[in-house]
């Protein structure tokens, strides 16, 4: 959850939460989570709901639920989705990040290449993240799963991800050159 701490202070969030705690103390189970839910029910103007582009998750891979409000900007994956290999695109992302376990949806030869090219902070994003991700996505067997929406969507958006990664790589190289590193 992202929070604007300045706005929270101006709104005296601490005082509001203290009063809510006193009022609901005997009826809440999950503490802060329940208090926040009560707070935002009473003050809906205090919350901004991101579009699916900024909170892309497994449910957006099923049937007609595909997120189409722009390029994916933040992926929200649970361990279950990745470790149980429920969503091939998320498994491919996980593998490209270097956390490779043996995803059954990815060809064994491709898996070996992913292990060699696994991304580490400070490395070139295009070569060490986008290229392995592309390889993994294009070698994902779509006939083995009903959850193909995210794989297709990520395949279509690879050019945007590559462009963003190139920009980060260029800025990193410029900063390194300026610092003499």
From TrEMBL:
Any one Gene Ontology cellular component term annotated for this protein: membrane
Its chief place of residence is membrane
Q: Which GO terms describe its biological process?
A: protein O-linked glycosylation via N-acetyl-galactosamine
Family, per entry: Belongs to the glycosyltransferase 8 family.
A GO term for molecular function:
UDP-xylosyltransferase activity
Q: SUPFAM superfamilies, from UniProt? A: Nucleotide-diphospho-sugar transferases
Q: Give the way it sits in the membrane.
A: Single-pass type II membrane protein
InterPro entries this protein is in?
A: Glycosyltransferase_8, Nucleotide-diphossugar_trans
Subcellular compartments: Membrane
Keyword Transferase listed? The answer is yes
Keyword set for this entry? Glycosyltransferase, Signal-anchor, Transferase, Transmembrane
Top-rank taxon of the source lineage equals Eukaryota
In its UniProt entry, what is this protein called?
Answer: Uncharacterized protein
Query: Mind telling me which PANTHER family this protein's record contains?
Result: IP22168P
């Amino acid at each position: 959850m992202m929070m604007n701490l300045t706005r929270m202070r101006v709104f005296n969030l601490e005082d509001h939460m203290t009063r809510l705690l006193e009022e609901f103390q005997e009826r809440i189970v999950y503490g802060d989570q329940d208090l926040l839910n009560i707070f935002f029910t009473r003050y809906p103007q205090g919350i901004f709901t991101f579009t699916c582009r900024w909170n892309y998750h497994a449910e957006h891979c099923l049937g007609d639920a595909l997120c189409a409000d722009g390029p994916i900007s933040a992926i929200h994956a649970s361990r279950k989705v990745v470790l149980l290999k429920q969503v091939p695109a998320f498994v491919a992302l996980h593998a490209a990040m270097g956390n490779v376990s043996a995803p059954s949806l990815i060809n064994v030869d491709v898996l070996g290449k992913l292990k060699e090219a696994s991304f580490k902070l400070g490395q070139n994003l295009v070569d060490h993240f986008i290229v392995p991700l592309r390889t993994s996505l294009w070698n994902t067997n779509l006939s083995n799963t009903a959850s193909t929406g995210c794989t297709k969507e990520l395949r279509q958006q690879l050019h945007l991800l590559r462009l963003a990664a190139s920009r980060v790589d260029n800025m990193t190289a410029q900063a390194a050159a300026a610092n003499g590193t």
